[in-house]
Amino acid sequence: GVGKTTLAGKLYHNNDVRKRYNCHAWVCVSQDYTTQDLLLRIINSFGFETIKRKELKKMNEEALERYLYRSLEELSYVVVIDDVWDREAWASLKRAFPDNKNGSRVIVTTRNKEVAQRVDERTYAHKLRYLRSDESWQLFCEKTFHRIKMDEGLEKLAREMVRKCDGLPLALP
């Protein structure tokens, strides 16, 4: 609700970021997942074509980790692991990403403060804040009324809606 995925997406899709890395991947974890499925989706998202997808699906978790690790060893990469609900999700993927000292990055989004703080000892956890009422109003107007003149009644209704969103950007249109 506060924009974690949106912020990660802006970084991920930024042209300067895209140029900086040899390869890019995005995977959403959510509550129900298997590590094997996540690894397959990450490999597919990177677009590695050295092994056919049928062969990848036959590989166990450990073999997929090794395949991903070897595929990334000589590359600089950025990967977004979105919506991690528990620490084990990252722990089960961590081994597949080489720390090749070339600036590669893994961005993890989570709604769980404990997960964010304990993902890795070198992790920087950025906590997004709720929008102030003036920021909420500005965002609402930019998205909804950027070319429409509001009358008094409509503005009163709109301000009430923005107040009820309580600073959550995704609750605003």
UniProtKB/TrEMBL annotation:
<protein>
    <submittedName>
        <fullName>NBS-LRR disease resistance protein NBS22</fullName>
    </submittedName>
</protein>
<dbReference type="GO" id="GO:0043531">
    <property type="term" value="F:ADP binding"/>
</dbReference>
<dbReference type="GO" id="GO:0006952">
    <property type="term" value="P:defense response"/>
</dbReference>
<dbReference type="InterPro" id="IPR042197">
    <property type="entry name" value="Apaf_helical"/>
</dbReference>
<dbReference type="InterPro" id="IPR002182">
    <property type="entry name" value="NB-ARC"/>
</dbReference>
<dbReference type="InterPro" id="IPR027417">
    <property type="entry name" value="P-loop_NTPase"/>
</dbReference>
<dbReference type="Pfam" id="PF00931">
    <property type="entry name" value="NB-ARC"/>
</dbReference>
<feature type="domain" description="NB-ARC">
    <location>
        <begin position="1"/>
        <end position="147"/>
    </location>
</feature>
<keyword id="KW-0611">Plant defense</keyword>
